[in-house]
Amino acid sequence: MRVLMLVATSVATDTRVLREASSLAGIGHSVHIVGKSVPAGFAPGPGVTVSSVGSSSVFRREARDDSPTRLSWPARFARWLLLPQHRNSSFSRWADGAYRDAAQRPFDVVHAHDFTALGVGARLAEERGVPLVYDSHELWSGVPREYRPTPLQDRRERRQEAEWGGRAAAVITVGPGVAEELTRQYGWTDIAVVRNTFPLRPDSELPDLPARPRGAVYAGRVGAYRELEVVAAASRDTDLPITIVGPGDETWLATFDSGRATVRPALPLDDVSREIAAAGLALVTHSDKWPNHRLAMPNKLFHAVSLGVPVVATDVGQLGALVREHRLGVLYRPGDAASLTAALRTAVDGYPALVDQVRRARPRLSWPEDEAVLRSVYATLMTDHRTA
Predict the structure, then answer these.
(1) pLDDT tens column, 128-165
(2) CATH of 2-197+367-387, one of 2.30.29.30, 2.40.10.340, 2.40.160.20, 3.40.50.2000
(3) How far apart are the C-alpha atoms of 247 and 356, rounded to whole Å?
(4) DSSP character at residue 365
(5) Residues 192-211: what's their mean pLDDT?
(6) For the chain, what is the largest distance between any 2 Cα atoms, rounded to a whole number of angstroms?
(7) Which helix (H) or strand (E) holds 136?
(8) What's the burial of 59, exposed, middle or buried (CB within 10 Å: 0-12/13-18/19+)?
(9) Residue 269 CB coordination number (10 Å)
(10) Which of 99, 279, 319, 388 has its CA 20 to 30 A from that of 215?
(11) pLDDT above 70: percentage of residues in the chain
């Protein structure tokens, strides 16, 4: 089948999209991804092609570089006030451009990644008379809102998700918690769970870990609602060096006191993997404030597991349940720096046993398990397509 994937990200750092595209290409499907502001020269891998639509809006031109800008307080307030309009304009322009790009291409199925691509995906699928796959990366109605309240827009988006997603031949999501909530909200059944797992490395290719942790690394988005204030507070009460690395929200960073933690910009995935392995512990943190946080199982968790590295994680929702079930590390109470400090100490003291437990759990928490689910979804689509 000719698969058209739509995603309002740069693709280059979207490991879920790339992994799914590569897996489908690996069994003979051709995959084209329409992304957002894809870096020039980016090569997605064998059997996969990519095209790019810009991310400008009526409030901001297309970014020319990645230079951070520290905003004044009035500018931060204006951003908070106008951010909904900017986001709406940016995603709307991307969707219009994605439609124009995709309308010129042949495809047998539309795979829309997340709500931001769902509307244009549903339109293209209906016009061509082909199946729609809705790949919900998170509970869209429960994600953090880092801008002024928009209750009318939130209700409209729930109605749109119900309508457009209800047309899908298949719905995929990242974890059982999100699947159950989508069923509760919209009555959708047979939702396939394809987690954000990583490839299963042979034991011989696992990185060498220190005999005792040399540090703890948080690798992910650096911004609000990720417990980073708690991480910073805990850094003052532990001798274990803490590193925070990832793409940053400069508005949020302008007022962030990192304590004794080191904050570093985003790194390529292989470099991040080396940082985590060299430290010996991974921090997997997010708040308990938003429904999506209670249902999500972050990429950071599966990244650590793929390296055989134990985690210190927030005891919240699905994340806490998975860490507890597979004994992947030590949990701490959300919002409690003293609890995080104690968890770090416990992880250091019990490190050899934690490493052993993570390595035993790896096969059940790695991509081959989830790849089989994704390929099964497409096998069903192919059967239905041939008999239609």
Answers:
(1) 999 999 999 988 876 665 655 667 878 888 999 999 99
(2) 3.40.50.2000
(3) 31
(4) G
(5) 95
(6) 64
(7) strand 132-136
(8) middle
(9) 13
(10) 319
(11) 88
